[in-house]
Please model this.
Amino acid sequence: MFAIDQLPTAIQDKIKKNKENDGTSSLIGSAGYTSADDDVLFDCIIALSMGKNVLLKGPTGSGKTKLAETLSSIFYQPMHSINCSVDLDAEALLGFKTIHNNDGKATIEFVPGPVINAMKQGNLLYIDEINMAKPETLPILNGVLDYRKTITNPFTGEVVKANQNFGVIAAINEGYVGTVPLNEALKNRFVVIDVPYVQGEVLLQVLKSQSKLEDEKLLKKYVTLSADLIALVENGNLSEEAASVRALLDTCDLSVYLPPLRAIKRGIVEKLEDDREKAAILNIAQTLFE
Model:
C-alpha cells in the first residue's frame, strides 16, 4: 500500500509546504484512486515533482480522472480542468476578453482561463481526453508543455511564464470513438503512464469505500461481474465503457434499493448502443445474480 513516507525527503518537504500554503483550496481534488500496482501512483508523483508532464493512458473508467484528483490531493495543489472536445478553442484554454462596467465607464478586460490561471498560480492543469481536441487546437500549448513553460497570450500579448510549481496531467483514451491519434511531437512532451483496470481485492475495497452498498456478498459478485466484463473487453467483444468502474459504482449504489439485475440494466447495460453487447452483459449477470 502506497504511503507518503515512501517518497524522497525533498518531495515530502514540498508536500508539507503546499499543505501550509494551499491546503484549504476548494480546487484541490479528492483522494480515492486505488490500484494493485503502487508504481502507477508513485511514478506519477515522481514525474510531477521533477517538472515532467504526465500523460495517463488507459481504458474508459479505469480511474484516470480519480488518479489526477488524488495527485492534486497528495500534493495539496489546486487543479484546473479542461474537458476536451471538437469545440475546444483558444478561449476555452487561455481565457477571453469581456466588457466590464466600472463606475459607468466600459472597459475591456481579460478573464483568464484554466491554462493561464494554473501557470500563474503554480497549480496543476488537468487536460481530460486530450485526443478529443482538434489537432490544430493543441499546438498553442507547445511552449507550455516543453522546457520553456511559457506562452504568449494571443489575446493580450502578455508573455506568461509558469510558476515553478506548475504541473500538467493529461488523460487519453486511445482508439475511442471521436478521438484522433495524438501528434507525436505533443506526445513526446509527456511521460506516459498506463492506468490499468482496477480488479480483484483492490476493486472490492474501492466499491466498499466509494459506493453506498454494504452487502459484502453482493459486492463480491459485482467484482466477479467486473472481471467477466473486462475479459470480454480485452477479447474485443465489448465496449470499454461497459467495464467502467464509474458505471459499476452507479450499479452498486442502485442495488441498495433495486434488485441487482435491474441495477445492472440501469447502471451498465442501457448506457450501451449495441444490442449484442447488452445481451452479453445480461447473460453474464443472470448467471451471477439469479
